[in-house]
Fold this sequence. Notes:
This protein is 61% helix and 2% strand. Strands 1-2 form a two-stranded antiparallel ribbon. It is mainly alpha-helical and 299 residues long. It is built from ten helices and two strands. The chain has one domain (49-290): Orthogonal Bundle (Ribonucleotide Reductase, subunit A).
Amino acid sequence: MNAPTTFPFDVEPTALAGKLAAVPTPADLDIVIRDRRFGRTQKPGRWWLAGDPIATAWHNALSATFPRGEAMFIEAVKAHRDGVPPKLEAEIRAFVKQEINHTREHLVFNKAAVDAGYDLDKIDRRLEENLALTKDRPAIINLAVTIALEHYTAMMANDFLANPKHFAHAEPETAAMWRWHAMEEIEHKGVAYDTYRFATRHWSRWKRWKLKSIMMAIVTKNFIANRWNDTLDLLAQDGITGPKVKLQLAWYLLGNPGILRRIFPSWCAYFLPGFHPWNHDDRALIGKAESEFPDAVMA
């Protein structure tokens, strides 16, 4: 196991240049590169999440989007890193390294899902087609999409760590992979947002808010619709179909454990004046989850 790499971010004050106020990113934040590997000796089972096909399908559908999605996040942030303050530059480097590791582990996880009998090609083809459209639009639009999706990953990461129901009775190593990913999503949740603020530092507050809000509305529509359809498609591959299945999926998302219901307040907060991902400091969840790894405490 490689030792975690920690990036210190006390190289300068937290204020960004230009018309922006100081960012609320914690001065003592560490973005730690945990180079962990999962599923190499024992692959996940077909219904790895407590034997529940609906819960398993939802997470498999999420995972199928991560490799291409996180590559897009990296490129969107890197496209705006020229001239950023040293503190933000260090955060971007750590963000990129964490996302590369996430991509690697979800590629392994997705291959295990394919080996278990699932066809993920339909999901991947749609992602490839959608991402092809990003090449011809302004780079700032891609960054606005990225901060919206990064907010989704941060919201879900918070709930994955805060609500034990999500991975109760899941296969231990697979649950550990999801918790590891969640920890690092929380740590770097402000990087893309601070990059967006710096890239738009000469914009009016209204223009900056309008673009990010419009893109969040579009992202939300597409995210929920696509994950819903992808999950139903994976369930259909198990022969699980019909109106009752849709009701069960809706209950899983809105009732128990209710990930979409539970993140709704944080989703609303995104549209408030003065929003920043670090207005809510949830690093205590990282420490709690980190302690669950057997190699977390090192001499």
